[in-house]
Structure formats: structure tokens, C-alpha cells
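Z., the sequence and structure:
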Amino acid sequence: MANVQPPTNRDVWLAISGDPLPSEAATAWAATPDSGAVVSFLGVARDHSIDRDGVTALEYEAYEDQVLRVFTELTNEARTRWAEIKRVAILHRIGVLAVGDTAVVVAVSSPHRDAAFEAARFCIDTLKVTAPIWKREDWSGGSDWGLDAEAIQSAATEDAVNQVSRQVDSTKKRTQNVAS
């Protein structure tokens, strides 16, 4: 785990760090001369959670080698889905965070805003369910860990699932029409 610095020779910046995340630097790094859009998402420690008020701190732990592998996979998948994206930064903090500290940064650039928004949303949503990062919430009544990582769904897998779903729906409609 090193100081989080932007790369100088590639279009992907992936890191996990116990140090505060350089969100402004990530946004500036993501901008390229041919990008008309840069979308940055910051996940920030807040003072409440679902069904829980009074959160005082978060603690993140990670299986660091696997986190970077997952970040690489989801960045590759984002590039498959939105080939026009230019730069992708995914930075995650580990250790104890106070309310208001930045826990995660996702920055994506592209020539147009739609791809940047969609790719950034995909990256943060997929990261939350696939990366082996665990969060403990501390609150006035105790603390609790969340444990629920899943596999990344590729665009091809999603397309196949959607196609099967459409075929099942079509078969149901034909069956209903024949029965009528």
C-alpha cells in the first residue's frame, strides 16, 4: 500500500490506500484533451446507515491483491461496454474513516457525457458488490461488519440472460395465445 499517485503512462489509475484519497487530483487526471466529459463520484462516510442513526466511524478492510484484480476486471468490462471512455480512476480507502472522509473515488472521462455517467455508475455499483472490501460501521449502540461480495457480470453474460428472458416471455405469450 503506497502513497496514491496518478500514473504517467496509462489511462487507468487503480489504488487502495490507508491515506486520504486525492479526489481532486483524480478528477484532474481523468480529463484529457479529447474528453468532453469527466464524471467523478465520491463515496463519503456519513452519520447514518439503513435503519441506523448515529454512525460515528467506518472501518474498511480489504484483500488488497484481489481488490486490484477486481478493479482491473471491472475497468476492462467498462471499456467493453463503453469503448469510447478515455480514462478511469478507481481509488478506495482502507482503515478507520471519520464521518465526512472520502472512502472511494471513481472518475471516468469520455468524449460525451452519457458514456462517462454510465461507466462511472457501472464502476461504483459493480465495485460495491464484487470487490473483497469489508466495511464495519461503528455507532453509539455497537458495531457491525457487512460481508457480501459477488462476481462481476460481463456484458456478454447480461446479454445472454436478457435474451433467455425475452425468449421465455415470448414463449409464455405464445402459450397464452394458443390457450385463449
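The longest helix spans residues 155-179. The chain has four helices and ten strands.

Let me know what you think.
H.
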